[in-house]
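debug: dumping io for the single-chain case to check the tokenizer round-trip. Nothing else runs in this session.
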Amino acid sequence: MAKDRQPHIGIFGRRNYGKSTLINLLANQEIAIVSDVAGTTTDPVKKSFEITGFGPVILIDTAGFDDVGDLGKKRIEKTEKSIKLIDLAILLISNNTFNQQEIDIIQRFKKYDVPFVVVYSKSDLAAPTNVMREKSIEKGCSDYLVFNRNEDITPVIKAIKKSIPESAYTNPSLLGDVVKHGDIVLLITPIDIEAPEGRLILPQVQAIRDVIDNDAVCIVLKEREVDAFLMKTKIKPALVITDSQVFLKADASIPKDIPLTSFSIMLARFKGDFTSYLQGTPQISNLKDGDRILLLESCTHHVSCNDIGRSKIPRWISNYTGKQHEYDVVSGFDNLPHPIESYSLVVQCGGCVISRKQLVNRLKPAIDANIPVTNYGMTIAYVLGIYQRAVAPFVQLEDNSMDYL
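debug: decoded output
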């Protein structure tokens, strides 16, 4: 597979262990502040660049997890939070120190299924004992190496290439198992107040590219053109993908023998925990008065008066249940306003701007707490009464998924 996205690599370790130095060596440029003063790095710093011999990556330089004081505690919280975002961790150790703090951070790597490399740094100042290698291997590192700033960076790059999962830099096809060579795919794309000026939203662009990559034919039109187009051309698409906000119009216009879904549901199957979504979506019917619902947006954007997540979905859910609910909306990877256990339902957006790993980790606390999770498009289809039709193109491809319909 071609490399088509930038894997996230986090650098972790105690203060003044050489994290920023390592990043600068990997990038072959000074992108992180280097100082002998412990605690120079505060908030996690992201930088996108090309690692020679590997490809484009995003490196995250984090604050030392041994920081102190009230401010230090907040820095540590942000360091730990960044683990949810990464595909690979590099843990720096030094001074022959491998204690509970290193063990704790490794446990967090494992919690979010993040492979990690252990690098013993500043070996010119304190040569490592064999115990350092033994402990690293015992705790499950994918590689262990000794390094100092005066040496060739190549071994670290080799460890990255060896340890990073292929899924971190490749994406499977969105529709490759749904459409085939020569199929006609119809995309219904409303141009409303939320559409960006002069361009399409990212899921629409991704769908167009994927249809083309699968040697199929893509036709794009607005919702008000669908009826006339089908009548005049007599074309019968193999698949129709619509914006979820015009689901009812699309459902009425597209003959029932033509598969219909939405961009958001396409992304739910591609990026999210689709099985959990299928289990969680019908729980909308069980919501009660006073239940708190969490809506997760993966990006920050200008909020219109009729915003899909902040206005339309809450209104549609409440109209469907006939109950009064409390709604919280969280953008990006901001902290939740209430403990996850406070929520009766979590509704995740399509997640077009983040990786599958990041989206799955975002939902993990809710799933671990047995809180139903769903997706914007699946929620809309459910409350509008066209859920089974909307998920059918993908459900039939998933083992045991039909059990949830």
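debug: round-trip ok. The radius of gyration is 24 Å.
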